[in-house]
Structures are given as structure tokens and as C-alpha cells.
């Protein structure tokens, strides 16, 4: 393959790029607008396509079942503000096929699919969180194996309670699995607490804090990627991660479109 690969392939306005800076590391840079909102096109044609390209390239270098390798996911490199601002809520609220894990009436799958593939992916994944990381993006970062985050001004937050969005089972399962205590889960979800990098590092949710903005985050992420790439040699890395996170996979399979607050209120009033 010839790198960098701009995604969507053939688009005059790419939303992401895949780089292969060393023989054992790949890098996915997200540059979808100002804040990398997660929507159909971005997930389907950038995130899912990038995982597919990296897997194919990694498999081409395997001798039997595995080879060293690691993937870094980073927000737009030319800024210091956003990793991703989460789901394009207005664009997905009326789409009943956005969360379900399997095809619904022929419609393609989206959010749960990227969570599945991150969990099942064959090499270690490092989230290089170079700015704010909200809602669905925080969950996506939590499905990665390691997190390197800027030590500067940036928050990780689940703010669904503030704008009235029910949380899908898949996201709730990731939070319950990855966050260290039920109190932290409560703070994250029901209080929409904005966690600072220092808080998350103290909780063990972020593995490395990096100074120097996006450049510093990427330097530390590449150090970690090179240190962990050898773990993929035996070919069982993704299988083990999937087994450990089976509760998340099962929850995502059960996901259904949750009733919205306004509809729930209408039903409640009808019963009075």
C-alpha cells in the first residue's frame, strides 16, 4: 500500500488519513471538520475502512498467525482542542439503524460496529487523546487498549444526561467495564462529570500524560505503540481482548433503539 491513505478513498475532501510511520505501527488521523463528530459517513468510510486497511496490511506481514503491530488513533494533528466531540446527535437521533449491532432491514450498521471491531482488532490500539473527548468518542477511546492524553486543557465527559439522550446498552457496558468503580461510573453518566487528564491518570483510565500538545501526545503514543507492538506476534491479542470484554459484546448485540424522553413522558401521561 502507498501511504498516507486518504479516506474516504477518492474523496476531494478527506475526513481521515492512515499513515504507516514505522514497520510495526499504523496511525489513523481523524480530521472530520472542527471536532471529528461521529456520523454514518465518518464511521463507515473512515474509521471502519481504516481498521480494514490496517488489518490487511498487518496480515500481509505475518509469517504464520501473527506479527508485531500497533495502531494509534489521534485527533486532527494541526490543532490542540479536540480528539472528538462525540456523536453527531442531531444527525443520528432519527436513525433507527445507528446503534443496532446487526443489519436492520438491509440498513448498514454503524456505532456498535466500530465498537465491535475495536474490541476484536488483532493488534494493540492506543488512543492519542489530543483534546476534548466527549460522549461516544470517550467510549470509543475506552475500547482502545491504552490511552495517552494531553496534560493541558482537555476533558473527557459523558454529557448525555445534559441534553436528554438515553445511553445505549453498548456504551453503558463499556463504561461499566473500563471505569474503575461504580462511583466513577455514576459520576461519569448521571452527573456528567468533566474529567481532567490528571483525574483520569490518577484513576488509571489514562496510561500516560503528555506535555507539548498534539506533538507531545503523539510522541508518547508512538513510544507506547512500539513497546506493545510485539504482543500481536502470537495472533491471540484480539481473541483475548474479545473474551475479556464479552460482557460488552453481548450488551451491544442486545441493543435496541431506546425510547426518547419526550415519548416516555407522553406514555406516562397517557396512563394517568
The radius of gyration is 18 Å
- Give the distance, in angstroms, between the N- and C-terminal Cα atoms: 63 Å
What shape does the CA trace take? globular
Strand content: 15-25%
Kindly report the spatial arrangement of strands forming the biggest sheet. Answer: 1-2-3-4-6-8-10
Number of helices: 12
CATH topology: 2-enoyl-CoA Hydratase, Chain A, domain 1
* Mean pLDDT across every amino acid position: 88
Q: State the oligomer.
A: single chain
The percent range for helix content is: 40-55%
Short recap of the structure:
It comes from Hydnum rufescens UP504. By secondary structure, this protein is of the alpha/beta class. Helix content is 42%, strand content 15%.
Tell me what the structure shows:
The protein is α/β, with parallel strands linked by helices and 272 residues long. The chain has one domain (5-271): 2-enoyl-CoA Hydratase, Chain A, domain 1, CATH 3.90.226. The protein is built from twelve helices and ten strands. The protein has helices at 40-60, 89-92, 111-120, 136-143, 160-163, 169-178, 182-189, 197-203, 213-228, 237-244, 246-253, 261-271; strands spanning 5-7, 16-22, 25-30, 70-74, 82-84, 125-129, 132-134, 146-150, 156-157, 208-210. A seven-stranded mixed β-sheet has the order 1-2-3-4-6-8-10, sandwiched between helices. A three-stranded parallel β-sheet has the order 5-7-9, with helices on one face. α1 runs parallel beside α3 and α4 packs across α6 (169-178). Mean pLDDT is 88; it is low at 96-109. The chain crosses the membrane at residues 115-143.
